[in-house]
Amino acid sequence: MLRYRFSAEDFHRMAETGILPEDARVELVEGEIVNLSPVGKRHMAAVKRLMNLLFPLQQAQKALLQVQDPLRLSPESEPQPDLVLLAYREDFYRDRIPEAQDALLVVEVAETSREYDLGVKVPLYAQAGIPEVWLVDLLGHQVQVFRKPGESTYGENILAEGELEILGLKIPVKEVLP
């Protein structure tokens, strides 16, 4: 099978010239353009719930919420996590795509994508040095928390119980799961 590899810049040029439709549900992972799973109602509700729970951090100008937008991890990887908590910037990243060092937290909501998220995306986030990742598993009705990034894995992988905490904000796990 012949595969073509692309950089993030190639990927954006394809979108700008119309090769990739504006509404295409794709992301760039290690130089390959990957189709994203369709988003179901439970998935959409979970993302909205997380936005609502994390919004106080944006109101307090401690962080910015980014929903299903690109996050540049490397010149060849630009996934679109369900939610990213970014370092606060007055310009709201107007002139550039947020990068790995800007991310305080990445959240992936898994309904049908759990294996892909765990096998592909979480290791990419670790390689890029994302300090914390939450995997909200809708089918397993649990939240996995990954911390202490290493070369391709996280040093800490726990099932969240009771509360999640980020930047001093405490969120009951039962409020994250629909």
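(ticket continues) Second input and output from the same batch:
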Amino acid sequence: MTDPRPALIGMTHNDLLALCEQAGVKSVHADTLRAHIFRRGNQNVRDISDIPHEFYRFLEEHTCRLEPALSAAQQSEDGTGKFLLRMADGREIETVLIPGKGRLTQCISTQVGCAVGCTFCLTAVGGLIRNLDTAEMIAQILTAQTYAREKHGEMKFGEETSTGQRPRNLVLMGMGEPLHNYNAVARFIRIVTDPAGMAFSPRRVTVSTAGYVPGIMRMTDDNLPCNLALSLNATDDKTRNRIMPINRRWPIAEVLEATQRFARGSNKRILIEYVMLADINDSDADAHRLLFLLKNIPCTINLLPFNHFSGSEFQRPDNTRVDSFAKIVSHAGKVVIVRESRGRDISAACGQLRSESQQRKTSITSTAAT
């Protein structure tokens, strides 16, 4: 059963100031709360030594702690850690810790499921169940960080990354289309980039979209303090219509126009994500078309050979094809990175751990009914 009280970890500094006003205490206690919750990652207000006792009681009566249950945790041989979290209503979502040289990147989910329907994505199979609220997104950071700290010596996130350190980069590339949940996502970004709060650099927070143009335009107008990643994945509308139904509403030209507007307004490079599907979008001709499409957009291109999952109609291109595509793009002067799928041995395709959990539950229920 969900708690009707708002969670402290979903509150901005202005919200905390409003709490102080409602409780009749000095506004300075909002700063104390912000540091305790977001800097220390501690939701237990009783651990704060310098706020009035009546404020403790007010907070416990009018707010709640949000601590999702950990349904499953896996770690790959390459150091990738994947967590399946169960929210208060029983819905499960995934978050992933990805090790790099001296840093951790965390992949954040923004929805339970997804409505976009990309045919190469396992999350899309079950459709959209609901949006996550801001507190549920923040909880992913705190839960994974706490687990990594508690499992010191058991989970190792790379030789040059200290176990238990918080992530350095946040990417909203997990389950869901972030811009379909814009208000909660924007609130999340403002909380995590608050210099007196979680203090993530806006340069290290990235929102990924399948091409929801109204959301991209709104990000630009709101001057949202983050980077933009566009999941493009095709170089012509016929192909993109097939693999990404959202393209039928906002075709490539319209998506790239909005993306270019964001780049101009923010003075930032765009991350172009391109999932490579064998014999679908991986030809040399596709590489040349991609260069033409992106000629006026400052960008880095991430090539992601498809991470196959059971039941998918698509296959991963061979390494020769991936290398040829990358060389064409690179020789034209674009920054290109080939990203091998991380955690391939631990159900790391987006939505796969959740899907396997649901399948187990269905199997148990079916067995019990016979």
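Agent notes: The domain at 8-62 is CATH 1.10.150 (DNA polymerase; domain 1). Confidence is low (pLDDT under 50) at residues 158-163, 359-370. Closing as not reproducible unless the customer responds.
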